[in-house]
Write a structure and sequence with these properties.
Blueprint (H helix, E strand, L loop, with lengths): L1 E6 L2 H11 L6 E6 L2 H5 L3 E3 L5 H11 L3 E4 L2 H5 L2 H7 L4 E2 L7 H4 L1 H10 L7 E4 L2 H11 L3 E5 L8 E4 L2 H13 L10 E5 L4 E10 L3 E3 L4 E2 L2 E3 L3 E4 L4 E4 L6 H21 L5 E10 L5 E7 L7 H7 L4 H10 L13 E8 L23 E5 L2 E4 L1 E4 L3 E9 L2 H14 L13 H7 L1
Parallel strand pairs: 1-2, 1-4, 2-3, 4-5
Antiparallel strand pairs: 6-9, 7-8, 7-9, 10-11, 10-16, 12-15, 13-14, 15-18, 16-17, 18-22, 19-22, 20-21
This protein binds adenosine monophosphate and glycine (GLY).
């Protein structure tokens, strides 16, 4: 069977890598892919991005199944287009993807279905937004309604920052249409975790838990990024908390969407904030897997992913169980100089070692142009595996030491929360 993975990041490299391990797979195409997927003989990059053109390619090549990585094609309706043409694809429709593509949609959905989340209001009027901030005080969180490639959330610790964020989005239109409406919500304190499940329309299959590190610098300092490292499992998600999240957040979300007339299929990712008493609230939904969470999760998945995907598109996820490597997987992102504001392109990358049983390197913004080069912000995600968090971390950092590109930025403390818990 032939498979298509849509996207070009570390998440897509990890998905394609895992799919290609299946004995049932002849070829995994990646559109457009990156320097890592280009170098793997079992994968083939395809330089097509338009959904209609991709659907043509799928028919021409007799590709049996398509898996979509990023949110942009999902929000643009790639699943609707493929299904209309009778093609098998795993992901949410454009309507279902609103859970991620509109913060206002997600918030009013959660409110309507009593899903725990921060208190909020939505504004398009500048003065009303400023008044609300003055009334609520800081800290407070300002979110652009639409997709803003990770730049749409300002966690304002002061009133000054909060007012400035409103001006940036609503008055100065710095985020374009995405910031034409803003959600202003209560600041939640606690520890974050990523809770990702697969949904086939009615059945829900949870993946292994994980935890991301959003800030650029050690000790969770510096600007927000797409994610600088993630590990799986996340010890904060105890079996009790897992059951509670399923009961209070995931089940009501899938059922609530169905009640609202929108059948959810695809990966559903709830970004959780867990307070000091262990109570979870939903910070956001994504309708895709996380990046970099996917990389450690795929490194731990033992079950054949092609079989899992087939169950997902056929509506039979209730008939399988997933098997996980018992080890911890820790993915550490190496980012380009200047990331996240202005990543420098063109630096040469050297020294990536071959995959071993305890370390694998996934590519993101890389391309082979004579030599392997940096093409954007997040460049590589090095995933170490080990019996403990510490050993997984050691394996990842040993590999990072061998890799070189000028200006490489990476955090030295990925996994600190899990390490603290063990002591
Ligand atoms: P989001 O894209 O909505 O997940 O927001 C990006 C990041 O901002 C999250 O991962 C959190 O670190 C932070 N954040 C979002 N909403 C809140 C909130 N209500 N309280 C505190 N931090 C938040
Ligand atoms: N790592 C966070 C995300 O994918 O949204």
């Amino acid at each position: 069977m032939k498979i298509l993975v849509v996207g070009s990041g570390g998440r897509e490299h990890a998905l394609a890598w895992k799919l290609a391990q299946s004995e049932r797979v002849q070829m995994v195409y990646v559109a457009p892919g990156n320097g890592g997927t280009a170098a793997d003989a079992r994968l083939k990059n395809v330089n097509i991005s338009d959904p209609l053109a991709l659907a043509e390619f799928v028919k021409q090549e007799h590709i049996g199944l398509t898996v979509v990585g990023p949110e942009t094609p999902l929000a643009a309706g790639i699943v609707n287009i493929f299904r209309d043409q009778g093609l098998k694809i795993f992901g949410p429709t454009k309507e279902a993807a609103q859970l991620e593509s509109s913060k206002d949609f997600a918030k009013s959905f959660m409110q309507r279905h009593a899903i725990p989340t921060a208190e909020y209001q939505t504004f398009s009027d500048v003065k009303a937004a400023h008044d609300y901030i003055a009334q609520k005080g800081a800290p407070i969180v300002i979110k652009a309604d639409g997709l803003a490639a990770g730049k749409g959330v300002v966690v304002a610790m002061s009133l000054e920052e909060a007012h400035a964020a409103v001006d940036m989005m609503l008055s100065d239109n710095k985020l374009g249409d995405a910031g034409a409406r803003v959600v202003i919500e209560e600041f939640l304190a606690g520890e974050e975790a990523s809770f990702i499940v697969m949904v086939d329309g009615k059945n829900i299959l949870p993946l292994a838990t994980s935890q991301d590190h959003k800030r650029l610098l050690d000790n969770d300092q510096g600007p927000n990024t797409g994610g600088m490292g993630a590990y799986s499992p996340a010890p904060i998600v105890t079996p009790q908390l897992h059951a509670r999240v399923m009961r209070e957040i995931i089940d009501p979300t899938v059922q609530g969407m169905a009640k609202d007339g929108i059948v959810f299929t695809g990966f559903l990712y709830a970004g959780l904030m867990i307070d000091d008493h262990g109570n979870p609230k939903t910070l956001e939904f994504n309708c895709r897997m996380g990046d970099p969470e996917t990389q450690p999760i795929m490194a731990r998945l033992k079950t054949d992913l092609v079989t899992v995907m087939e169950h997902a598109v056929n509506g039979t996820l209730d008939t399988i169980e997933l098997e996980w490597d018992r080890r911890t997987a820790m993915g550490i992102v190496m980012a380009a100089a200047g990331y996240p504001d202005a990543p420098r392109k063109g630096d040469l990358i050297s020294g990536i070692p071959a995959e071993t049983v305890d370390c694998v390197t996934f590519h993101a913004s890389t391309a082979v142009d004579g030599q392997l080069k940096v093409t954007g912000g997040r460049v590589l995600c090095v995933v170490g595996l080990g019996d403990t968090v510490k050993v997984a971390q050691k394996h990842a950092y040993e590999t990072i030491e061998k890799i070189h590109f000028d200006g490489a930025q990476y955090r030295r403390d990925i996994g600190w929360r899990a390490l603290n818990k063990k002591h």
